[in-house]
Write a structure and sequence with these properties.
By secondary structure, this protein is an alpha/beta fold. Helices cover 45% and strands 10% of the residues. The strands form two sheets. Strands 3-2-1-4-6-7-8-10-11 form a nine-stranded mixed sheet. The chain is globular, with a radius of gyration of 22 Å. The N terminus is likely disordered.
Length: 486
């Protein structure tokens, strides 16, 4: 049985979120169990963070030589934990503080993620508050990538996460931006553990496999990502290990852009089907990224072929009929005026695959706002010109929402509408980090980046996104003002 790794969210989840926040706040207003029990790990660079919101930090090689669990329990992270236990709010967690500081009641991911069913929040709060701040704990939830090997080079991604981005920067050089997301300086000193292009001679991969026997005893959710997870041999090595060494309490998740050859998806489906049938894992789910639909989505995520994506989605959902998939919608500057086709597509897919529309949602969606780089942020768009698209899409979702009498998996759930509403509110209110200087730099970089992006990719922003023509002119003027001051 392929049940979800998270609690089934419905219109009553707001009560659970309030309860969770109240419990966390008994320790402090910045306390978050994810700092202890959640880990995102990039083995090809040796970087990690406690969830995907704070910027990654390096795991020093000397720390894992002493204790391989330092892949998670770094000295840096322990200092952030100490700050939380002493009533502080770590600066690196500003994604959640931006949401919590908005006017009115808004639930950040601190509330949502700590309400997950892999976490007994009451038990964990009492355990952590009564243990030394520098204690080691294994995570319950681990998201990790073995490699940045990828067949996509999404516009808002970077070389650290995509080998195709590495190839582009090597060929064309860096973009002339105020925010350097696309450089490959991290590759220049491999001896210090900056970048390992494959598993061979990678001390972080070696440390992970050494950690695995202990880790698998505590781990409740393992999420494999990339790069592209289905392109990496270690993904299938792990599936084979689970076949020979079962982890019946483990919920397995794989992230995929669904842009790989269909044979790879089928290979994964066959392996997972066997693990589930023989109860060697507890459950399985996929996550995939999609930010718009059709040619607009393909522009944002270079390498995406929507027809192949839909074929692979069908292979997965029909091959594992008890399993679910989540769409990770990175809501960015280009989504705003061209989001409706994706909302319509979601309803279409739910109608096709949710054949029992009273029980469970097989196609889940999440709409986190993109926080960097600035030229992809929604906040750089003039509110008087683009606010109308948020309102129209919210109205569309409400017109196609489940009723108050109960859930309807063919429609949009109330919590999904609330999540999109918080993105809308963040667009209008921003946060302390969304300064006028950041907006102006984002607009300047928008002009530079997309001009070069189009030239390198033989694409046309103006042709595909004509509703942004006036904004593009504004960004060009901003760029010219910057240049005139040099």
């Amino acid at each position: 049985m392929c049940k979800s790794a998270h609690k089934s969210l419905n219109i009553n989840m707001t009560q659970q979120f309030r309860k969770t926040i109240d419990k966390l706040n008994t320790v402090g207003p910045g306390f978050c169990v994810q700092k202890w029990r959640n880990e995102t790990l990039y083995l090809h660079t040796g970087d990690n963070h406690s969830c995907y919101h704070p910027r990654p930090t390096k795991t020093p090689l000397e720390e894992i030589k002493i204790d391989v669990s330092a892949l998670h329990n770094t000295k840096w992270k322990k200092q952030q934990r100490k700050t939380m236990l002493e009533g502080g709010r770590p600066d690196e967690c500003y994604y959640c503080w931006n949401i919590e500081d908005l006017t009115g009641e808004h639930f950040s991911d601190r509330a949502i993620h700590n309400s997950s069913d892999w976490l007994d929040i009451d038990k964990e709060v009492e355990l952590i508050r009564n243990m030394p701040w520098d204690s080691n704990l294994n995570p319950y939830y681990l998201e990790m990538s073995f490699s940045n090997n990828c067949n996509f080079k999404c516009g808002y991604c970077c070389p650290q996460s995509s080998t195709l981005w590495i190839e582009e920067i090597k060929k064309h050089g860096n973009y002339d931006l105020t925010y350097n997301q696309y450089g490959i300086e991290f590759m220049q000193n491999n001896a210090s553990g900056s970048y390992f292009p494959d598993d061979e001679n990678n001390p972080y991969v070696d440390a992970f496999w050494e950690w695995w026997p202990s880790l698998r005893l505590d781990l409740k959710v393992l999420r494999l990502t990339g790069g592209e997870a289905l392109m990496h041999p270690s993904t299938f090595k792990l599936l084979e290990k689970l076949d020979s060494e079962p982890a019946p309490n483990l919920f397995l998740i794989i992230n995929s852009n669904l842009g790989v050859a269909n044979t790879r998806v089928q290979r994964m489906v066959d392996a997972v089907s066997k693990l589930l049938a023989e109860k060697k894992i507890k459950g399985f789910k996929m996550f995939t990224s999609i930010d718009s639909w059709g040619e607009h989505a393909e522009y944002m995520r270079r390498g995406l072929d929507c027809a192949l994506w839909e074929e692979n989605l069908n292979t997965y959902l029909t091959g594992l009929p008890e399993c679910e998939i989540s769409f990770m919608i990175t809501y960015n500057v280009l989504c705003v005026a061209y989001f409706r086709p994706l909302l319509e597509k979601i309803l279409e897919l739910r109608g096709k695959y949710n054949y029992d529309n009273t029980s469970r949602q097989r196609i889940n969606i999440d709409t986190p706002y993109l926080k960097e780089p600035p030229h992809w942020m929604i906040n750089i768009l003039p509110q008087e010109d683009f606010g109308k698209y948020f309102e129209a899409d919210l109205e569309f979702m409400r017109a196609n929402a489940e009723s108050s009498t109960g859930p309807n998996t063919l429609k949009f759930a109330e919590y999904e509408i609330e999540k999109f509403k918080r993105v809308r509110d963040y667009y209008y209110e921003g946060g302390s980090r969304v300064t006028e200087d950041l907006i102006q730099r984002g607009r300047r970089d928008f002009h530079v980046f997309f001009t070069e992006y189009d030239q390198r990719s033989n694409l046309s922003l103006s042709k595909l996104f004509p509703l942004y023509d006036d904004f593009a002119k504004l960004c060009k003027e901003t760029y010219e003002q910057y240049e005139s001051k040099k």
